[in-house]
Amino acid sequence: MTRPRRYLRPTSVAEAVGLLADLGPAARPVAGGTDLVVALRRGEAAPEALVDLTGIPELRALAEEGGAVRVGACVTHARLAADPLVGSRVPLLALAARVVGSAQIRNLGTLGGNVVNASVAADTPPALAALGAAAEIAGPGGVRRVPLGDLVTGPGRTALGHAEILTALIVPLPGPHGAAFEKVGRRWAVSIARLSVAVAADPARGWARISLGGVFPSPRRIPGAETALARGFDPASAEEAGRAAEEAVRAVSGGRPSMAYKLPVVRGLVARTALEAAARARGGGS
Ligand SMILES: Cc1cc2nc3c(=O)[nH]c(=O)nc-3n(C[C@H](O)[C@H](O)[C@H](O)COP(=O)(O)OP(=O)(O)OC[C@H]3O[C@@H](n4cnc5c(N)ncnc54)[C@H](O)[C@@H]3O)c2cc1C
Question: Alpha carbon of 262 to those of 7, 193, 272: distances in Å?
């Protein structure tokens, strides 16, 4: 491992962006370090300087703002999992945060780090995709907002430009609904997802949002499955949603060797998770 020679801890977004712009590609932003430190140890990254973003109050803020929940990029998974606003208004995000790693990882790991690391197996991006989240990005050219799908462009790849940092995820409030999140891993605890299913649904108002992790190069919703479920929110429509999800995955990733196992699991898990979200909505939320 090549140790970074400089460790910098800015206290504002402008200072962080300025440092990254001045230092160039030799500098890397770091938040909880749970992905980056592993990469440093493996020799997969060797920045000369680390710019620690966790001392910037704006990036740790979490609040309701103009019909959305604004989650600062440095909000940890532990906080998301326990936050009353997130739990009551966008419970899908809390459910996803609860299954990240272990208590130690959830205490350090951040929502922004999970998104920017852009692993196909990450837990929060499917929930964010289902909820239609946008990413707020700050850089030398100012602040811009893009849909999550335009930020994460593929496995390990994002559209962040030179000296840009992710400042927040903006999650529009969908109104009362039920949520369910299921993750399939190799073992029960501290497991990276082989695949995951995120569902938010409101049978009373006839809408469903369904997204999958671990099977697409970047997070995305599955409109065919959402339409199928919204036809009745009953076991038959849930089965149909499962089949639609299976077809969507086959069309994009069907050639991968793991698909012989994953495709039937996608079908069954989408059907089960969809019914769970619908039942929670009918029972007064999740
Ligand atoms: C043992 C273990 C178990 C894990 N289990 C899970 C799991 O179950 N589910 C899961 O999804 N993940 C898991 N992870 C991965 C990791 O914990 C998460 O991805 C975490 O959310 C990363 O956040 P972080 O703040 O630690 O990111 P960091 O390690 O600090 O950063 C990750 C990457 O994002 C960049 N970055 C961070 N913040 C920003 C920002 N605001 N703007 C621009 N760039 C930024 C960094 O430069 C780096 O490239 C696990 C990791 C370990 C070590």
Answer: 42, 12, 15
Closest listed residue to residue 118, CA positions, set 89, 142, 162, 148: 148
Report how far residue 33's alpha carbon sits from residue 266's, in angstroms, rounded to the nearest whole number: 31
Q: Is the CB of 38 under 6 A from ligand 1?
A: yes
Q: Is 122 in the pocket of ligand 1 (CB under 6 A)?
A: yes
User: 27 CB less than 6 Å from ligand 1?
Assistant: no
* Interatomic CA distance for residues 253 and 263, integer angstroms: 10
What is the CA(177)–ligand 1 centre distance, in A?
A: 29
10-residue stretch averages of pLDDT, the chain, 286 residues long: 88 98 96 96 93 98 97 98 97 97 96 97 96 98 96 95 97 96 74 85 97 91 97 97 96 81 93 97 71
- Among 118, 142, 138, 279, which residue's Cα sits nearest to residue 213? 118
Which amino acid is located at 90 in the chain? V
Q: At what angle do helices 223-230 and 235-253 cross, to 10 degrees?
A: 170
178-282, CATH topology level: Enolase-like; domain 1 (3.30.390)
In the chain, where does the domain assigned CATH 3.30.390.50 lie? Answer: 178-282
Radius of gyration of the chain (CA): 19
Please tell us whether the domain made up of 61-172 is placed in CATH 3.30.465.10.
yes
